[in-house]
Amino acid sequence: MTVEFMTVRGIVYAVQGASLSLKQGEVLGIVGESGCGKSVMVKSILRLHREKHTRYGGQILIEGRDVLRLTQKEMGIVRGTDAGMVFQDPMISLNPIIKIGEQIAETLRIRKSMSKRLAYDESLRLLRQVGITPPEDRYLQYPFELSGGMLQRVMIAMAIALRPKILIADEATTALDVTIQAEILALLKRLRAERGMSLIVVTHDFGVVAEMCDSVCVMYAGEIVESGSVERIFASPAHPYTKALIDSVPRPGTHGDKLSSIPGMPPDLLSVHTGCAFYPRCSVAEKCCETERPELHSAGGAHIVRCERPIWKK
Amino acid sequence: MRQYGKGNLQGGELTRTTNVGTLFTPAMVAASSILLLILIGTIFAGFLAPYDPEAIDLSLSYGPITPEHILGTDNVGRDSLSRLLFGGRTAITNAFLVVGVTVSVGIPLGLLCGYYGGALDGVIMRIWDVILSFPPLLLGFLFVAMFGRGSTASILALGIAWIPMISRLARNLTIAERNKTYVLAAKSFGFSDARVIFRHILPNCTSTLLAELTVDIGYAIIVLASLSFLGLGVQAPTSDWGLMLQESLVYVRQSPLQTVIPSVAIGLMIVSLNIVSDSIQLYLDPEQRKLPSFERFLKKHGTHS
Amino acid sequence: MEEMIRVENLKKYYKKTHAVDGVSFSIEKDSVFGVVGESGSGKTTIGKCILGLETPTEGAVRRRAGRMQMIFQNPYASFNPALSIGTALREVGAVHKLTRAETQQRVSQLLEQVSLTDDVLKRKPKEMSGGQLQRLAIVRALLLRPEFIVADEPVSALDVSVQAQVINLFADLKKEYGLTILFISHDLTIVEYICDTVAVVYRGHIVEMGEKEQIFGEPSHPYTKKLLAARPGLERIVTKTLDTNEAPLYNI
């Protein structure tokens, strides 16, 4: 898949030839730093970018149907029923002057043509399901009356209202406290189990991936640089970037010795890079990495890496 | 020494690039050239005007468009083109004076009210309420009584009548900025209140205030015109767009052209001002900047890879 | 050990809420004092009261520190978006009666220390990355050579991969300038890394306070235990046994 944007600074090559697949019921993590294209990629699944200034390429197949070839009207049906989405900041994702219950019920009324009564009952059920109690009282509250964690639960209730097959959580817990984050992650896990949904978790924190996911895609500069099962990637990361990301997560009990970080920052995506995008920051880079674009290699089974000098080769 | 990140900003790091999207949209080009024409015309009215704008020639009353008088003549035979040029000078100067009065009082007071709130805010906002309850026309009469007939009275009346609006806008913008972290950070460095208000908060409000003010300049021309129309503003025989409109309206049946000329001038001025101010605003805020479509961009800059 | 800050029965009430409700502690010179808690627990208010940015409703803050400075959570919010970085830094010097040359010299020295160069001075805040801008916020705070710094969630708005840059920087600068730091965070792992003493705050009260080893080793309050348990765990996965037969294959 490729996604390119028109911006005031030029064309941004946000996603460049990324391929991934998601099985039913699977939890897939997409990890990378800010500006690596992970959010852009998942938003493209629902074609949420402004169409006039975006150009998609490749295919996005949901159950064999290419999302990129659908009309706007068909797209309207896909959004919410095929995939639902939860964003980072619930405070600005909800309408501040409409009661939270109404916002859920409205979705149901419009999209499922439910009667007012039915929509109300269903909204209460959804609120209860995401752990908002008592739902009757909360239904009548406005977004500013709820805490960030509660609002994120409301967002999740809205996202699953139309029973989507895929739920996409785009940095959904990044803005939350650790304790609340743990609760929301637990909620997502439970919903996935109850509803048999697939889950895509976008995050910059490998800790969250470790907690949640079955498989993981590491994104860098608009490309997927490594993907595979969580266990494998944690035990033997093949791409230097993956390893650096994992190492940068502070572990309980570390003090005295220095925390490790990745020097520099991701490249901006205004130009297509030649060679390996990670080259300037890579600790094991060699001369040829600057000019030769690395290919995808299998590192055993489904474990794939885009690097000519994977770590274990040493 | 240890590196906390890359020192230099080349390579992978954020770099400034050429801006896409242009300030000079077709509408902007048209509007600014009209404005430029108006400004040149009025500034150099002395050189450009073919006749003395106040020279009466009763034999030419309602003269038609002729090579000598490109825009005809008015009821007492004065050359309309000359009056238009000189009239623009009066109208635009006065409009800027009105906005000047409004800005110099309204914005500082608005900023102070917004920043400090409390009693100061309460008192000043009530004063604005009182002013708002006076129609500008009434204020106009009041000032005429004080200063006599003439443009001073109408400029002051209008300027004061508009203070509350700009002041409230400044106040509300300040309230929104006041609670932002950068203000707290500025305070934590021991910056004085005056510095925080005028050097930190004001620059973050200017784009909105500026948009309001450009609209006000246009609007001031109209209202000043209607005040002259009522005999409260500029007095004959001075040339002024408002006055031209007033005088011509009495004889609109005999010579509709003389009504159309100042109307078109005022309308063009206002529309162009608004377009220019909108375009500048949009351009300064890159998120809102108008972008070309993909196809057009690629055509212009060549295709990639 | 010399005491630098002493907070006695600090209370701060807003209209309805009791943001801080009777908090006492003292911070020793050259130490890092951690305040941990969820958002809304009153930990930021404590920091602001110490710096005098808020007036306590009750109680007292005794300061034996010279200059004090604060570093905020979101670097993009703490810089005025309308001013360039250079203007923002120079202004701090100018207000505090440093000469231009003095300011320039301090700025250059500090920039070098945080691995940035002078060309950032021309930029606007939004042209910087989060990690870079937070390092610049630290430069701005250290410009006046403070003895005491309140760091309010200084890394929680940053990517995990750059958090360490800022945390390491804190640790180094602390040694170099003999800083005393009040470190406010909801992230226990980072607090464990950088702090000497830790206070756990819950709804305006300190529920547990002590040396780092004690809080993390044998937490006694149930809330502390809950916080500790909520940390997302890499350990869990790292310790999972791996199928060793699945040796990596490399094919070109």
Can you give a write-up of this model?
The complex is a heterotrimer of chains A (314), B (305) and C (252). Chain A has eleven helices and 13 strands. With 314 residues, chain A is of the alpha/beta class. Chain A has one domain: P-loop containing nucleotide triphosphate hydrolases (Rossmann fold). The mean pLDDT of chain A is 85. In chain A, the strands form three sheets. Chain A has an eight-stranded mixed β-sheet, with helices on both faces. A three-stranded antiparallel β-sheet of chain A has the order 2-1-4, covered by helices on one side. By secondary structure, chain B is mainly alpha-helical. Chain B contains eleven helices and no strands. Chain B has helices at 26-43, 45-48, 80-116, 118-133, 136-147, 151-178, 181-188, 193-229, 241-250, 257-284, 294-301. In chain B, helix 1 packs across helix 3, helix 1 (26-43) crosses helix 10 and helix 3 packs antiparallel against helix 8. Mean pLDDT of chain B is 81; it is low at 5-18. Chain C has 252 residues and is of the alpha/beta class. Helices cover 37% and strands 24% of the residues of chain C. Chain C has helices spanning 43-51, 75-78, 85-95, 100-113, 130-142, 160-177, 188-194, 212-217, 222-229, 235-238; strands at 3-13, 18-28, 32-36, 58-63, 68-71, 148-152, 180-185, 197-202, 205-211. In chain C, a hairpin with a 2-residue loop joins strand 8 and strand 9. Chain C starts with a strand and ends in a 14-residue tail after the last helix. Chains in contact: A-B, A-C, B-C. Chain B binds chain C through residues 1-9, 13-14, 16, 180-182, 184-192, 195, 199-200, 203-204, and chain C through 51, 53, 69-70, 72-74, 77-83, 91-92, 95-96, 112-117, 119-120, 127-129, 131-132, 135, 137, 140, 144, 162, 165-166, 168-169, 172.
Structure, briefly:
By secondary structure, chain A is α/β, with parallel strands linked by helices. In chain A, 34% of the residues lie in helices and 19% in strands.
C-alpha end-to-end distance of chain A: 32 Å
Instruction: Look at the helices and sheets of chain C and give the structural class.
Output: alpha/beta
Spans where pLDDT lies below 50 across 5 or more residues of chain C: 237-252
* Oligomeric organization of the protein chains: heterotrimer
Please tell me the overall pLDDT of chain C: 84
Counted up, domains of chain A total 1
The helix/strand class of chain A is alpha/beta
Can you say what the CATH homologous superfamily of chain A is? Answer: P-loop containing nucleotide triphosphate hydrolases
User: How would you sum up the global shape of chain C?
Assistant: globular
